Amino acid sequence: MSFLILVRHGQSTWNLEKRFTGWVDVDLTETGKSEAEKAGLLIKEKNIKIHFYYSSLQLRANNTLKIIQKVLNDEKKFSRAWQLNERHYGALTGLNKIEMSKKIGENKVYEFRRSWDTKPEALDKKSPYHPTNIKTYDSIPREIIPDTESLKDTYERVIKFYSNEIEQKSNENILISAHGNSIRALCKYLFNLNNNEISKLEIPTGNPLLIELENSKISNCKYLDQERAKDLLVF
User: Fold this and answer.
1) What is the DSSP letter of 123?
2) Known catalytic residue at 227
């Protein structure tokens, strides 16, 4: 048996402000740091030795993982991959979700947030929020940096990376610290969710999802913080 642990980063500053964040590289709030610490304690209680750690390039996921590792007293180097980044929200980036709901309607905002293949308009490359203007992404070839993404786009990059770099480590225990939409994409793949089911899946911040694997097949899964657990749709 092996374990795959998925953790959405703790609350970020723009989560708190209810802004579309995407590829903007914001940090954790104090609440987010506390969520990460609790995640580490919950994982520690399971006494699972983690062999490999992965995260996106983004600060909020990296710092969540560092806090977890500190709690586990296991600060080995982790792999960072842009493919695990949050979905790019295009021209919605930086806008307030509540204000946008009032402006264009709750249904349209829900469609942008939850649909499978609908993407917002492209973000202007001159915007300070465009990834080409954010130092964090200097290592990524300019031509492959997106201007906007649907969940389908996010899924394609996440699953390509997972299949090539992580899935082959089937007998190892792995922890991934990432984002709401990159984890949703991974759950769609792992649990074989259809396009309607994935629209209903919500990933809580800082709550480890423990997935048990036997011969590369999921035998069980659960959120470690049951008080903040969300419906997994499949178990």
Assistant:
1) P
2) no
